[in-house]
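Case study B.
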Amino acid sequence: MRTPIAYFVVLSGVLFTLGTLGVLLRKNALLIFMSVELQLNAVNLALVAFSRMHLALDGQVLAFFSMVVAAAEVVVGLAIIVAVYRRRGTVDVDEARGLAG
Amino acid sequence: MDDTSVGISGMAWLWFVPAIPLAGALLNLFGGRRLGKLAGLIASGAVGLSFLVSLVSVRELFGASVEERVVTEHLFDWISVGNFSVGADLRLDALSATMILVITGIGFLIHVYAIGYMEGDPRYGRFFAYLNLFVFFMLLLVLADNYLLLYVGWEGVGLCSYLLIGFWFEKPENATAAKKAFITTRIGDTAMLIGLALIVSETGTLAFDVVLGSPDDTIAKGTATAISLLLFAGAIGKSAQVPLHVWLPDAMAGPTPVSALIHAATMVTAGVYLVVRSAPLFELSGVALTVVLIVGLVTALFAATCALAQDDIKRVLAYSTISQLGFMFMAAGMRFYTGAMFMLVAHACYKALMFLGAGSVMHGMHEETDLQRMGGLIRRMPVTGWTFVIGALALAGVFPLAGFFAKDQILEIANHTGHTWIYLLGTLGALLSALYIGRLLFLAFFGESRSEEAEHAHESPPVMTVPLVLLAAGAVMTGLLLSSSAEGTLARFLEPVTGPIPHGDGLSTLALSLIATAIALGALAVAWWVYASGRVDRVAFRERLQPLPRAAAAGWYVDHAYSTLFVKPGIAAARFSADVFDTKGVDALVNGVGGGVRRLAAAGRRIQTGFVRSYALGFFLGAVGVLVWLGTRL
Amino acid sequence: MPLDNVVFWVFAPISVASAIGMLLMRNAVHAALFLVVNFFCLAVFYLILDAPFLFAVQIIVYAGAIMVLFLFVIMLLGVDRGDDLRERLFAQRPLALALGAGFVIEIVLAVRAGIGFATKAPAGFDAVNEPGNTQAIARVLFRDYFFPFEATSILLIVAAVAAMVLGQRKARAVTQAELEAMRG
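Model:
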C-alpha cells in the first residue's frame, strides 16, 4: 500500500473532531449519541492504521474490543434515553438544566 | 527591714488586716441580697475586726526598739521573670501603722454611720461590699512592701471610687462624675506607672528596701527627679491637687459616707502617703520637693478661694479637702513629713466628721444641699450641729483642737526654715480656711431658718449620730495626744521612717501660735458677723463683689478650660471614630470583603449554566489546552 | 496510480462529507443514514489496511446492528421531526469551531513530529496475517487477550440486563396526545 500511514491518522483526527463538534453543537440527545459513535470509529481507524504500521495485530484486537464495548454502550445508552423521554417528554439536552447555579 | 519575728511569734497574721475586709466584701457581693440588713453589720464588723487586729499589731510594734520597728511578711512569690521578681510582701512600720489605724478606725465609724444613712436603698448589700472592697484595697496600698503591690492598691481604690461615686448611676450626672473621677486620676496613674518602669530600669526591682534604702548609690540625681515627679503626678491625680483637682467637687454626687471615707479620710490621702514613703527619692532629687511644695501651696490657696463661694454644703467641704491636702503637701515639700502625717490624721478625723455631719443635715432636710436654704439648724439638730462646730473649729485651727496643732506646726517649720513667703502665703491660706468654714458653719447652723425644710428638720438616728460624737472626740484628742513637735509622740513614732524634723530659727513657737489663733478667731468672727448676725446684707455684699464670687464658685473656670481643650475634642474624636471611621471605614472594609466575595461568587457562578453542552465545551477546551502544553514541551 | 491510493482518495472525502452531513441534518433519520455511509467508508479503509475481519465486523455490528438500533429508537420516540438549529448558548458555536480547528492542527503537527508524512506501511504484514487474518486475530485474541475477552462477555450480559431493567414500564407509556398536552 502506498498511502502513507499519516494520512489515515489525520483522517481519523478530522473525523474525531467532527464527532466532537456534533456533541457540542447538536441538541438532540440521539444525535449527540451518534456523534459519540463517530468519535469511537475515528479512534478505531487510528488503531488499525498504527497496527498496520507496527506489524502487529494488537491494534486490530483493540479495535475489535472497542466495537464490542461500543455496542454494549449503545444498548444501555438508548435504554436510558428512552426512559428519560418517557419521564420528560423530550430528548432535548438543553432542557436538563436543573443544576444551574 | 527584718524578719517576722520581732518579739512575737506569728506576726504572720499581718495579712489578716486587709483580708478581713476582703472577706466581708466577697460575702456581701455574693450574698448581699439575701443578707438584707445584715450586710451592713457584716461590713462594719469586718472593718471593726480589722481595726482590732491593727491595734494589736501596732502595739507589738511599739514594744520593739526603734531599729527593729519594722515587720515584713512575705505572702507568696508573685512575679518572677528573669532577673526581675516581685513578691506579695506586706510591711508594717511606723508609717503604715499610722495609716492602717486611721483607715480601719475611721472606716469603722463611717461604716456604722452608713448603716443608718443607706437604709432602704435597693442595693444596700452591694454598697457595703464596695465599701469593704475599698478598705481592702486601701489597706493593701499602705501595707505594700513594694511599689507594684502599692500600685495594685492604688488602682483598686480608684476602681472602688468609681463604683461608689456612680453608685446611684440611674442619674446620668452621677455616672458622669464617676467617669470624670476615674479618667482624671488615670492621667496621674499613667505617669506613676511610667515612674515605676523607670525605677525598675534603674534598680531592677520595686521593693522598698532596695529602692528607698540608699538611693544615692543606685540612682542618678536626674533620674531620681524624673521618678519623683512621675510619682508625684500620680499623687496629684489621686489627691486632687491642681491641675488634676477637677474630679473631687463633682465626686460629691456619691453617697455621703463615700465622700467621707474616700474623699476625705483615706483615698485622697494616698498621695500624701506615697510622697512620704518615697521621701528618700524626693530628697535625692531636691527639685521634686520644691515642686511638691509649690503645687501644695498653689492648691491650698486656689481651693480655699473656691470653697468660699460654693453654695452646696458638700462642695464647700470638697474644695476644703483639696485645700487641706495642699497644706499636707506643703509640709512634705519642706521635709516636714511628720507634720504632713499628723495633719493627715487630724484632717481625717475632722473632715470625716464634717462630711458625716453634712450627710446628717441632708438626711434631716430631705436631701437638700443648698446652703442658702438652710439656717438655724443647730436648734433642730443639736448633736449634728455641735459636733459640726467642733469639726469646724478644728479645721479653722483653734486651740486645743487637732487642726490647730497641725497647721500651726507646719507654719512654724516654714518660718523656722526660712521659707518666709511660704509662711506668709500659708498663713493667708489658714485665714481663708477659717473664713470658708465659718461661712459654712454659720450659714447652715445659725441664724434664721431660710426654708420650710430647715424649719422642720429633724435629728438623725443614733446609728448616725454616735459616730459623729466619736469623731468629734477624736478631733479634740488627737492634737493633745499626738502633738507633733519634736518631743511629740507621733514624731518619735515616725522618726525611723521619716527622718528628723527640720529645725531652724525664727519667731518663737509661742508667738507663732498666738498669731495663728488670732487669725483663726478673727476670721471666724468676721464670718459670724457677715453670715449669722443678720447685720450685713449678704446678698448685696456678694453682688458688689461680682464677678469674683461667680468665678470662684465655678472653680475659676478650670473645668470650662478642660472641657474646651480636652473633653470636647476628645468627644469629637470619639464620635469621628465611631461614626465615620468605624462605620464607613472598618465596616466598609469588612462588609466590602463580604461583598467582594459575593460578587466574585456571582461572577464565578455564571459558569454553572446547567447546560450539559457548555460543560462539554469546557472539557474540550481543557483537552485542547493540555495538548497544546504537551506539544510545546516535546 | 496504485489502487489503494485511489481507494483512499475516493473514500476519504466521502467519509468526511458524510460526517459533515450527519452534523448538519435537521432530520434525525437523515443524519443516521449519513452515519451509515460513514461507517461503510471506514469499513473500506479497514480493508485496505489489511484488516478484512474488521471490515466484516464493522459492517455487521456497526452498520447492521447499532445503527439499526438507533433508527428503531428514533422512530419509536418520534423525534425525527425538525430539530431547532438555533444556538442559544453564549459563544458555543464559534468556540467549538475554533477549538475543533485547533485540535486538527494539533493532530497534524503531532503526526508530523511523530511518524512523519512520508512513512509508508511497511511490507511484511502477510507474515503477521498467516494463515489468514481471522485465524491470526483468533490466535491473539484467545491467548494474549483472553481475560479482556471474558470480561467483555460479562459486559455484554450486563448490558442486556440493564436494557431490560431500564426498559421496564412502571406506568403506561405516554401517548402522543398526552405529550402534546404536557408540552403545551
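The longest helix of chain C spans residues 52-77. The remaining cases will be described in the next quarterly update.
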